[in-house]
Every structure is written in C-alpha cells, then in structure tokens.
Amino acid sequence: MNCTQHIQNQVSFICIAPHNCQCQRKLCAQCQYGHGVDQKYTVPIEIFEDIRKKKFQGSYLNSTSELTIQRMNFKKMLASALKMLKQIWDELAESIKQIYDLIEMEDKSYLNYFNNNVNPSELSYTQLEKLVQIIIGNALEDWNIEKNSQLKRLEMKKNYWEMEMKGFCQKLNKEMKEIRQIIQKTDNSFENIQSNKEIVQIYNGKQDLYQVLTQTKNIDGYFLNQLILMLKKEKITNFLEFFSEKSQDQTLFQFITNLMYNISEIDFNKENYSTENYEQIRKDLIKQISYDQHISEFLKFLVHLTAIDKRFLQCGSNSLHLLVEMKVDLRKQNFENIRIRDTSIVGGNFVRCNFNGSEFDNVDISGVNLNQASLFNCKWKNIKIHELNKLNGHSGTINTLCFSPDGTTLASGSDDISIRLWDVKTGQQIAKIDGHSHYVMSVNFSPDGTTLASGSEDNSIRLWNVKTGQLKAKLDGHSSTVYSVNFSPDGTTLASGSRDKSIRLWDVKTGQQKDKLDGHLNWVYSVIFSPDGTTLASGSVDNSIRLWDVKTGQQRDKLDGHSNWVYSVIFSLDGTTLASGGRDNSICLWDVKTGQQRAKLDGHLGYVYSINFSPDGTTLASGSVDSSIRLWDVKTGQLKDQSISLLMVRYQHLGSVDNSIRLWDGQTGQQNSKLYGHLSCVNQICFSPDGTTLASGSSDNSIRLWNVKTGEQKAKLEGHSSDVYSVNFSPDGTMLASGSADNSIRLWDAKTGQQIAKIYGHSNGIISVNFSPDSNKITSGSVDKSVRLWDVKTGQQYVKLDGHLSIVTSVNFSPDGTTLASGSRDSSIRFWDVQTGQQKAKLDGHSGYIYSVNFSPDGTTLASGSVDNSIRFWDVQTGQQKAKLDGHTGYVYSVNFSPDGTTLASGGSDNSIRLWDVKTRQQIAKFDGHSHYVKSVCFSPDSTTLASASRDNSIRLWDVKTAKEILLQDNFYKDLHSQFQMPHQSSSFLLTTRIDGTILRICQNPILEALGTLILKGELVNYQGRNLKSLFQSKGSFIFENNIELKQKNPEKCVLY
C-alpha cells in the first residue's frame, strides 16, 4: 500500500506511539523521518505482524474448549435441575391427588348408607354391622374429626410449600439479578456509555412528576453511577451544557438531557416538597413509586447530582426527602459533597454513610440515625432539630428544671442531692451546688436571675447566689418534704408547698416566714403566683386546687375537677386562665375570675407532672410519665402535635429517670413528616408467618400492624380498654390473638383487622397468649396465676391449669403441640400435657421472676429469661438445666429462638438486645439503640431480621447479619486510628464499637442517634446559631478538632475529646 502523504512511497512502518497520530499510524520512510517521535515507536510492518501474532496466541481467545465445557456443564445442570424439579412436582401432585381421592372415597362410602334406599334386611352382615356402628357409635364423628384434621394439615402443607417456593424464587431472583449485573457490566462498560448504548425511545416532556419519573424505567443504576463518576472526573459543573454537546450524536445523552431539562422546569426543582402544602402530592407519589427500583435509583442520582450542579439542588433535596419517606435503605451510602437545602430528612437511617464535604442548609435532621457516619469538613447551617442538647452529669433521677429569666442558664435538681447549673447554648455544666442532705425536689430562679431557690426532701428551703454558687440563706419551718418553691413576680416573696400539707410565704430579703396558709387536706405538690402577684394557686394530693389572696393569706376559691392528685398548676401570662395537671392523666383549664372549669384535655396515658403556657398564651405544653411532652391549642383544647418535646421556665417535677436532661426546640417540633408510632410502652411484637407484617401490642391500649419493608402502619386495631400485653399470629396466618389488662383475649382477622371474637374467663389481666401449632387452640397466662386453654373456633375454655403461685408471665406451645410451657413470677417453669391438662414437670433454678419462655424449633430445648439477669436452657425431655447464659446486666424480659434454630435473641432492662449461638452458648452480637427496657424480641420467619419492642415506645428492625460485624475489621476505622493520635480509652472504644444494625425505627418522635459518628472541622450550626457539636458529642460522636495541624505541631496534644 502506498503512503497517502507520499504516493510514490510504500508504507513500511506502523506508528505505536501513545498519541493522536496525524498519519493514521501508516508511515513511509519519508514520513518516519519527519514524524517527530522516538524511533522505537515506529515499527517495521514485518516486525509488527510478528508482535500481533504473538499477542493473539497469548490471549487464548481461540481456545474455546474451556468456554465450551463450562457452557455445557451449566446447560446440563439446568436440564438436570428442571428434570428433578419436575419429578418432585409430579410426585407431589400425585400424592396430594391420592389423599384427596381417599378422603372423597371415604365420604362416599358413608353417604352410600344414607342415600341408597336399601332395605337393611337385604344388607350383608359386614355392611349392616358398619351401619349399626355408625348409628350407635362415634365412627362418623371420628371420621369427620380425622378428615378435618387431614384437611388442615394439607392446608398447612400448602402454605408451607407456598412459603418455600416464594423463598426459593426470591433466592433465584437474587441470583438472576447478579447474572443480569454481569451482563450489564459486560455490555455497558464505561466506553459503552460514551459511545455504544442507545435508547430508542424519544423523550416526551411532562409536567406531572410521576410521569417524568416513569420515563426513567430504561435507565439502570449502574449507568447512573457511571454518569456521576464521569461528571466528577471531568469536573463538570453544568450538567445540561455538558450533555447537550454530547447529545448531538448520542441518543442516550439526548434522552438524559431532555429528561433533566424537563425536571429543571417543574415544581420538583423549585419548591420544598417536604412542606404541608405538598403532603397529599407526596403521599400519592410514594404509593405509585415506592416499589420501583429504577425510580429509587434515579432519585439517588439526583441526590448525588447536587454535588456537581447547583441548578439541581432543590430536586436533589426533594429526592432525599422522598427516599427517606419511602424507607429506601440508605445505609452505608457515599453522600460525599452533596448539597441539600430546604427539606426534611426526619427519621432517616444513615448508618455508616459518608457525608464528608456535604453542605446542608435549612434541613430538619430531627431523629436521624447517623451512627458511625463520617462528617468531615461538613458545612451544615440553619439546621433544624427538635433536640438541642443532652446534658449528662447527674447520677440520680432529675426531679426539677428551671430556666433563668434570660434563658441562658438552666438549673436542675436531682436525687443525687445536688443542684447543677448548665450553659444552655453549649450544654456545658457551669456549676455544681451541694448543700442539701436529701433529694432536691424543686428549683426556681428569682425574677432578676441572681438568686436560685431550692426545696428538698430534707424539709429545708435554700437560697443560692447564682453567680458564686454560695448559700445565701436557709429557710426552716416545714416539717416534711418541700415539693415546690416559687418567687413572686416582684421577687420579694417566696412561696413553698410541702408534704406537711401547708403553704408558706417567706420574705426573700430577711429569710423570715411571713405567713402560713392552711386548708389542704394532704400534700401540696405545686405553688405558683399569678402574673400580678396578688393570687397564689396551689395543687394538692387532696385532688383540689386552691386560690389564695397573697396579701391576706385567705383562701379565695377551691377548684374541684380532678379525680386524683394535682401535680402542677400554672397561670397564663395574662392571668385569666389557670391550667392544672394531675395523676388522673388529664389537664384542666380554669377561669380564674369565676373558678369555673373551661376545658378538660385528655390524651396522656400517664400522670401529668408538669404544664406550662407558651409566651403568647395560645399553646399549653404538658409533660407526663408516659414519656411524652405534648402541645395543646388553648383555644380549642385540641392536641397540636402527638409528641413534641419542649421545656419552659418554671417546669416543676419534670425530669428523667435516665439521669439526663434534654433541651428541645419547640419551633422545630411541628414536624412536617407524620411519623406513626405507639404512644406508650410497646409490650410485645410478633411477625406474621409470611414475614410481611409485624404486629405490636402497647400500653396505649392499641394493637398495630406494620409493613415490615416500609414501616408504614397498615392498621390500628382498637377494642381493648387497657394495656395490651401480648400479641400472637396464628401459624396459618389468618388470625391474631391479643391479651390485655382488661381481662380479655381478643381474636382478630389478620387480613381485615376486624375483631372476630372476645374471650372472657380470667379474673385478672392476661399477660401472655399463644396459638397451638395447628391454630385450633390458644393458651393464656394471667395475673390470676392460672394458665388456660381455649377452643379458637368456639371461644370455649378447654381446661384451666392451676399450680403457679404467682402471676403467669409467659406461655408457649412446643412445636408438636403436645406440651405447654409456662413461666411465672413464682420463679418456676412448668410443663403441662396439652391433652390431659396435667402438670408434667416443674423446672426450678432461676432465683427471680421468669419473664419469658420459648421452645427451640426442634422442640428439644426450652429457653427462659429471668429477673436474675440470666438466660437458661432446659432439656425438654428430662427437665434438667443444660446451660446458663450470662451477659445481661439487668432483667431478661424476652427470649426467642430463630426459626433455623441456630441463634437465640434476648432483650432486657439493660436496654440491650443480645444474640447467642445456640450450639456454643456464646454471645455473638449485641444491639444498642433503645433508650429504655427492651420488652420483646422476635425473629422474622427467614431468620435474617430481628424485631424489638421497648418501653421507649419504639419498635426497631435489625439486620441480624450486620450485627455480627465488628468495626475492628473495617479498614476505614483502622486508618483513622493510625492517622489520629487518640487516648487509649477513646481509640479502643472507637475500634470495638459494634455496627448499628438498625434497619427501621417505628416511633412517634425519634431522637438523633450519633454513636461513633466521626466529625472533623466543618460546622454544625442550627438556625439560631447554636453549635450542635456538643449535642453530637453527648450522643457518643468523636470530634476531631484540628487534629492534623495539632499532630504536626504538637503530637502529644493531638487528642480526641
């Protein structure tokens, strides 16, 4: 071939230089001379041919034997599997057919005796004998019982095969998904994205967001990820401009460009979709797209796009909100450098996510789970979070809190006998004031903020200098506990209420008693001055509220309305309304002038300990023993939000048994995202047999059914009039049973949620209910110390099993249905024969109440959990103790075997969940996350997920596999450990902290979780300018403060705080 540049010359060389060759790599001798590359890059054609042959021979591309063998092996395997499955299926179908044929034949044999008009005298002896036995005996009844039993067993087998086939298909689909990914990776390489892949569909612009999103069905997640990588590599900042140039000769890029132009012009990229204005649109959209994997991947793409192009910040922010609302698994995601604004991600689960370099502006992060996430060099500003700070320091229950008049300082009084002052902005303790010799029950600032008054169980009142913390005066006079102290508006008088039934007025300047007000018939829990200082209100254990004339000391009025103790009273700022909260779980509003009750606010499920008006008088906040703080509309008396947390000045007797103080932002409490959840302790949870639904029973008197995948509430079953202690699905999945403190058992249709039956018989509350394996019987354990068996169909009692000497806390059938186990507060476990009702064995060994018993799937072992902090394994056949598992540091409330029998889960009063290897009896994992006792644990049918219910009112779903991983095995954390010098204690804790396996949280008002979160530099500031790093630190985050510079300048001072 002649050279195209020098036609008279032959092509003699091939250019292999790594450049864009202007000679198209074909060179003649003349071209070689002027080509301008090293001679080693110009190879003679003969030598190039030799190189090509050697390269081809070494590639083995022409060696198809191995490929052919593997292809044939795979083909044989599939053919063999198909043949084997067909054989099993044919045998199964034939066997089932034979069973139904035999039943039908037996039915016909009986019918022949009744349908044929044959003279009995003409029957053979054998036929006549059978007919006589049918008439005088139980042969027909016995056959019907046997037939029904066989039919139920067949139905159970059908359900079993359906579940097995479903699981088998899911596994196959998972494998197919991996195979499809191999195909995609082979076919859609990075080069294919730029040149080969095409979408023949022409993009049509849409205004409706759902219609826009549906057009992403042909775009897979792998392709979108490659797009993001390409954009980052090219350092593109204008997505549309970049792809507009490429779309001229690439159909795919043209499609993407048109799609993104469309998105840029609709409301989704202009408005905040997390607001109430878009609530219905959001709900409808989520219903349409929640199960579409392609749309979920595209929404993630929009989130990542915020790190590249600022023109798509709002649609990316809205996308993150939708992903959170849809409960898409966002754990372990890389969100590096994303920019999110004007949205809500309330309750989002971002465990171990990378947020390095991210920018958040005006984002509500309330209740987000950021455990073990990475937040390096983040710029989070104008952040909304209803939890401002967690103040740790007290070693006993906190009884009282009070803000200083300027709002900068918080005072707290505790059972640890101390008073503490806290900086509200930083959360740091300013001072610790000691002096009282018993519990501090009340603290109150003077109007000028210079003096703090405290009342104690040591019967004294003390006045303290706020600036120095020194004692100014000790006021003695009360003969019992001082429950309440309150300054008059002018600061000259202090009022106190006591267990000695009296109210006393004190001169603040002299410390002398000015007056003693008698009238209450029992303890005085609360005293408060009216805004003008002329009236004093008091609340008492005698169930009354009294109004007193401060000047004369005379009682002006007595307000009756509460049916139990009055814990708290408060005046509105205009002085016209008085609010009161009591032990009857209610709040009353009173007209101060007339003394008439204006309204009664019901909703709390526990005693109302504290109440307070908002500054504008339109809202009333109430704090209760049910662990919630609620906001009420004063004008209408309606609840404004189910679970808002807010602390105000003058809160009395409001504290926590977890020895911590939490500060909450009342303005961010009005969450746009409606999070469902129980209003009180969740006592028990149970998976449906197909694993799609979780049932929960609570002390809020309700049963709720939850979608396991999304956490969405499917149904709320109401009917019980008191605490629901137990819920249990029937093995066939058609029914749900519940036991309650209202002494009733109720049966519910699992599909419709309708109540089927109400069973009475116990003389006290039912603590535990459980179905027999055939779903025909139900057993119950009660406060009346009895165990009972019931017929599910008729609701009639089969038998009453007596023997326990105290409350029966747990009942459980053996897998074969022949034995019943019961655990009791008499510290014993008993085995009962289901058929005879006789006690078979009594197992002693625990030294405290038994709270839970559970059979292993093979029926050979019983596990029990007790108040003695231990779990024990028992041999069912011999009744002997096989093992004792120690690890919990509190009561063990619940034990549950995994369906595969390899693992036992336990939950306890130490707030932890533990997983145990059944074979080795060793603890293999520990879940931390609940903030109160774990009352119930339950495995999903496939053993991969664990559900837990807690006294913190929440339900959590945990990834069992993830829980067994340790951060010590994670190179990322090892690198951090080596990069930053840390104190031994801190670094050790960082490297051994277990991964949070939370899949889902179901609760009314989740709190921020940030255990093991890594924070370096950057800013975390709320909309008030408050630094949130102290809040994160109180949650267990690790704050690296300028460690790199410190390590360079002074390595020994480079520490983690």
UniProtKB/TrEMBL annotation:
Pfam families associated with the record: Pentapeptide, WD40
Keywords of this entry: Repeat, WD repeat
Cross-referenced InterPro entries: 5peptide_repeat, Quinoprotein_ADH-like_sf, WD40/YVTN_repeat-like_dom_sf, WD40_PAC1, WD40_repeat_CS, WD40_repeat_dom_sf, WD40_rpt
Protein name as it appears in the record: Uncharacterized protein
N-terminal signal peptide: none
PANTHER family hit by this protein: CHROMOSOME UNDETERMINED SCAFFOLD_625, WHOLE GENOME SHOTGUN SEQUENCE (PTHR45333:SF1), MEMBRANE PROTEIN-RELATED (PTHR45333)
Keyword Repeat on entry: yes
Stored CDD domains: WD40
Start and stop residues of the WD repeats: 391-432, 433-474, 475-516, 517-558, 559-600, 601-642, 675-716, 717-758, 759-800, 801-842, 843-884, 885-926, 927-968
Domain of life per record: Eukaryota
